[in-house]
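hey so i finally got around to running the thing on that chain from the lab meeting. sorry it took forever, my laptop kept dying and i had to restart like 3 times. anyway pasting the input first so we r on the same page abt which one it is
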Amino acid sequence: MLDYDKEAGAYDASRGGEPRAEAAAHAVLGLIPDRPGRLLDVACGTGIVTRRLAASRPGMWVAGADLSPNMVRTAAARLPGAVLLADTRRLPFADATFDAVTSIWLLHLLSDPADVRAVVAECARVLRPGGVYVTTVDKAAAHDVGSDIDTVLAPRPRRPARDAADVLTAHAAEHGLQPAGQAAFAGLGQGRSPRSTIADLRRGWFTALPPDDPRVDGFAERLAALPDQDRRRPDPRFGLRSYRKQPATRGQAAGTDGQQQVRGQLSGGRPG
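ok and heres what got predicted. didnt touch it at all, straight out
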């Protein structure tokens, strides 16, 4: 996995910047009811999407959480007082705190299926009954756009998709989350060129093919032989799924202590 502390400074520019963030936020918001409440964006990264969620829903209080200190610092500059350092597998919030929870471009990064289950469980735990969880699905598959680059890369080793839609739907059901909708958006500016794909191989962006793997040179040579080395092929199209938390049964824990408690947790959790 990439070192996201090191990636923080160049993260947005290397992944479509504001146009991609706008497309992502627009699609996410289409799956979240437009009413007052609280939203948590887990693994918020630089906050480039989180900020748009907040700006587009002034009636909804939006917070972000991320495991990378440098990502948190960047996001906190965009959303002062609303971002904290936290492990998504162990969120520092009480049960049923939020009306919506989002995880955009997170679950595909987790190599251990137990971690995926833990993240989904935590997102469900902090979600209020009737609330909505929205997540990206099948991210790796979205990058296969049927181009000549994909043909070259087809034989590369792949790990099982931890964010496969059917797998996540099963995990969600275990925690009272039922399918509520789906959407898609273009990863604007993320279409691959042969030259950029070679650079990605050398940097270790293909998680099952580390840069020191002897097969990398062979893939790089075949990519270098493709025409139009700097022409980007079509942008990927990312999928989203939403899940609604079913009403609490009698005897389940009820609610939280409100927004003031959440603000207190945020102020206590940010790095100095």
